[in-house]
Amino acid sequence: MVTTDEKGPLTAKKKSVIIRSCDGDEFLVSESAAVLSTSLKKILEEKEDRLIHLSDIDNKTLAMVIAYLSTHADDGLSDDLKRSFDQEFVSGKEFDVLKYLVLATDTLQVTCLCYTVAKKMADIMKNKLVEWVRREFDIQNDYTPEAEAEIRRLDAWAWDDRQLEDD
Amino acid sequence: MSGPGKPNVIALGRFLQCRGPFAKRRHPLVNPTIVAEIRRCLEEGIEFQGELLNFRKDGSPLMNRLRMTPIYGDDEIITHIIGIQVFTEATLDLGPLPGSLVKESSRASDRFRFNISPSGVASGGTRNVSRGICGIMQLSDEVIALKILSRLTPRDIASVGSVCQRFYELTKNEDLWRMVCQNAWGSETTRVLETVPGAKRLGWGRLARELTTLEAAAWRKLIVGGAVEPSRCNFSACAVGNRVVLFGGEGVNMQPMNDTFVLDLNSTNPEWQHVKVGSPPPGRWGHTLSCVNGSHLVLFGGCGRQGLLNDVFVLDLDAKHPSWREISSLAPPLPRSWHSSCTLDGTKLIVSGGCADSGVLLSDTFLLDLSMEKPIWREIPVAWTPPSRLGHTLSVYGGRKILMFGVVPYVFDLAMFSRWIGEGEPCWRCVTGSAMPGAGNPGGIAPPPRLDHVAVSLPGGRILVFGGSVAGLHSASQLYILDPTEEKPTWRILNVPGRPPRFAWGHSTCIVGGTRAIVLGGQTGEEWMLSEIHELSLASSVL
C-alpha cells in the first residue's frame, strides 16, 4: 500500500519521504506534510535518509495520521476547511482507534491532533463506569478488594446521585 | 483465550510487553519480528508457531513456545483462536527490574524511541481480528493526565481514581485538578477563584469537590466596621476581586446619591470606606454596577434628579487617583432603571430590560464591548424576545450563554430563557417553566415568582436563586438551584446550614471570588443596616 501525493505534477517536484509502518508497509509523504510532526522533522534534520521506520505505529493508524498531515500541509485549503476536517476526523471513531491515534500522535509529536484526539477520548469517557474505563483501556485492576472499597468510600461524591454508563 | 464473536489478543498483548508489575513498555529484548510475525499470522488467518521472551510476575525471564491456531466459523470469519503455550527457563541478563511507578514515571519523558518496542499488535486487515495490546499503559503520564483526564469533569476524575493504582496517583495531582477546573469552568472562572485567599490553600481538588456537591455551603453573619453615610436604599453593589464596591442610591427625600464606598473583605477587620473618586457621575438609584477588565467598574442607567438615565461611566478602582470617566457612544439604549446587566468574557457589558419613561417595561438586549478603544452600543437582534420585564437577573454560564431569570407579576408567572451569543444566530430559549400564562411547570420545584432576587452562577453552569420580593407566603431565604446544562433542567431546593438573612436583594448582593454571595444589609422596616452582612459561602474557608 503506497499512497502517492495526489496533488499532481506541480507538487511532484517537492521532496518526499517514505514512512514505513510497523507492519512493513510504506507511505510516500511530502516533506511539507511530514515536518508538521515535530518528531519526523527532527529526524529529517538529523539524517539525509528519506526512509523513516516507525516501529511503533501500525498501518491503519499511520494512514490516518498521514491523511491528517497531508490535509494540514495543503496550502490550497482554508483554515476553516481544515478545522472542519479535524472535527470530521475524530467524529464517529471508536475508542479503540482513538487510543492508537493518541499514542501515535504523541510519539510523532503532532500536538494539535493529539489534543483533538485526547479531547474526543475524554468526551467518550465522561459519565462512564470504572469497569468501562478498565475494559476500554485494558487496565488490570491492581487494587485489593478492601483497598478499592476504601477508595470508593473516600470518593463517594463521584458516584452519589448519578447514573453511570457502561457502553 | 478468546470469547465468541470477537477474537481478541488482549492476553497476548499483556504478557508480551511487561516486565515487572509497573512496566509500561515491552522489554527491548522481546524480538519485534516475532511479534510482527504473530500479527501477520493473525491477519492472514493462518497458524503461528514460534518462541518469544516472556516474563514472570516477579520479572524473571522465561521463554515461551507459542502455537496459535485460528478457528473459522461458518461464514469464513475467525471466531476463535486457540493458543497453546509451553514455558522454558531463559538465561538472560536483563538488568535491574524497573522498581516503582515513580521511577517509570520519571522516564516517561524520554519515550521517544523509534527502533525499540513496537506497541501495536494491530490489524488493519479485513479479518475480524480485533486490536488487542493495552496501548494506554504505554502512554506517558503526561499524555494520560494532561491531555485526556484533564478534559473530564471533576466527578469523572474522582471516579477514575479507582480504576487502578496508577490512575489513582495521577488523579491526586494538584496540577491536574487545576486543569480540570479550568477546562470544566472556563479560565475566567478559575482566574476569579484564584483571587480568593482561601482557595489556593484549599486545593483545586477539594474546591472542585465542594463546588460540585455544595457540601460545605453555609450561611454566615459578619459585622463590619465603618459606615455608609448618609443612609440610603436602592444603591448598587458589585465585587472587584475581594472588595465590595457600593455606588449611589436613594437617600432621604428621594435624594439621588453619587458617592462610592469600598469594603475590603481581605482585611482582618473589614470596614466600609468612603473613597474619594474624581468626576463623579450624576447621582442616581436603580442603576447597575458591573465589574469589567479586572479592576474596572462600569455604571449604567438608573434614575437621577432629572429623570431616567442611559449614560455609561467607567472607574478603575486600582488607579492611583481613581476617577469616573464617561463613555459616550452613538445609539445608546433607551434611558431606564431597574434593568439588569452582566459581564460577558470579562469585557462586554450586557444590559437588558428595565423600566423606561412613564412605566413602560422594556424587553431589549444591548451589548457594549469595553475592550474596544471607542466602545459602541449594539442591540442584539433576535427574532423573539422574552416578555418585557424588570427586576430580573442575568447570569452567564458556559462562557457564552446567558440565563435570564425573572418574574413580572401579572404578566407571566415564571419564565426562564437562555441566550446564545457568538454561536450562530443568538436566540432566546425557554429553559424551564413556561412563557405562557397558565401553563404548567415541568421543571421540578420551581422558585415562586419574585422580583429583585439574587442569582448566583456557580462554576460549571448551575444557578442558585434566592431572596427578592416574593409573592404570597413563601420564604425569600429558601435556596433554589438549577442546572441549565442538563438535558431536562429541573429546580431543586438546596438546604444549607446557618442562619440566612430574612431579606436579600439582587441589587445589594454581589458575588465575591466566585464562591461567596455577600448580602448587604438587613432591611428592618425603612432602615438599611449596612454594618450587618450575611454571607453564603459555597466552599469551606481555610484560615
Characterise the protein shown here.
Chain B: Residues 144-182 form the F-box domain. The complex is a heterodimer of chains A (167) and B (543). Chain A has 167 residues and is mostly helical. Chain A has one domain (9-158): Potassium Channel Kv1.1, Chain A (2-Layer Sandwich), CATH 3.30.710.10. Chain A is 54% helix and 8% strand. Chain A has nine helices and three strands. Chain A has helices at 9-12, 31-34, 38-46, 59-73, 79-90, 95-108, 111-125, 130-137, 145-154; strands spanning 16-20, 26-30, 51-53. In chain A, strands 2-1-3 form a three-stranded mixed β-sheet. In chain A, helix 4 crosses helix 6 (95-108). Chain A is elongated and about 60 Å long. Chain A starts with 8 loop residues before the first helix and ends in a 13-residue tail after the last helix. Chain B is α+β, with helices and mostly antiparallel strands and 543 residues long. In chain B, 16% of the residues lie in helices and 35% in strands. Chain B is built from ten helices and 30 strands. Chain B has helices spanning 10-17, 32-44, 101-106, 141-148, 154-160, 165-171, 174-185, 187-194, 197-202, 204-213; strands at 48-55, 61-72, 78-89, 218-223, 225-226, 236-240, 243-250, 256-264, 271-275, 288-292, 296-304, 307-316, 324-327, 340-344, 348-355, 361-369, 377-379, 393-397, 401-408, 412-420, 428-433, 450-451, 454-457, 463-466, 469-470, 479-482, 491-494, 509-512, 516-524, 527-537. In chain B, the strands form eight sheets. A five-stranded mixed β-sheet of chain B has the order 5-9-8-7-6, with no helix packed on it. A four-stranded antiparallel β-sheet of chain B has the order 4-30-29-28, with no helix packed on it. In chain B, helix 7 (174-185) packs across helix 8. The two termini of chain B are 57 Å apart. Chains A and B meet through helix 4, helix 6, helix 7, helix 8 and helix 9 of A and helix 1, helix 2, helix 4, helix 5 and helix 6 of B.
